[in-house]
Amino acid sequence: MRSSTHNVLLCGMLLLYLPGCGLFGPRDPEPPSQSSLNFNPPTEPSIVIANLQSAIEQKNAANYVACFSDLSKGQPAFVFTPASDAAAQYTSAFENWTLADEQSYFQNLIARSAAQAFSSLSLTPKGTTVTADSVVYGYDYTLVFQHNDPSFPTTARGTLQFTLRVSQSNFWMIQRWVDFKTTDDIAWSHFKGKFSN
Length: 197
Fold this sequence. Notes:
Blueprint: H1 2-17, H2 45-58, H3 61-65, E1 79-81, H4 84-89, H5 99-111, E2 119-130, E3 134-145, E4 155-166, E5 172-180, H6 188-194
Parallel strand pairs: 1-5
Antiparallel strand pairs: 2-3, 3-4, 4-5
Helix pairs in contact: 5-6
């Protein structure tokens, strides 16, 4: 009897010292959420633009969509005006473009791109207009997004205009986007039309 009690105590003490499931040890930290990776709180209009560039480079759809005005959060509706030739080519896609369409196109584009494939957005400022409730940025842009459709270009160039507004929580977002075809390359609008579904 004494021997069996001794064995039980000995086994219990050994379990405390053996590296088992680590009930009392520190847990590994949770991986960062997909939407927080390199996303800075957009307390200034310029941070929104940096977040947008980062989201494209990282192919992060959650961060990408977070750069835009969201009607479901009580913000003004997001409005996109495509380049005229893309509007003519992809008429049905651009008939009533919403934030959901913006998200869908970007997710489709990511799905057609290898994980290590190159993507970037280069912007050259063309002017800034500040009003009481908005900031308007103009840029010449070069969008590069490598994908697996050999029939479609991987580079778009043009000029765009972003109108940014501030939310009630003092965060800035892109509320209006106007795209212009200004080079012989396709404009960004063509990417949106092509990968809209």
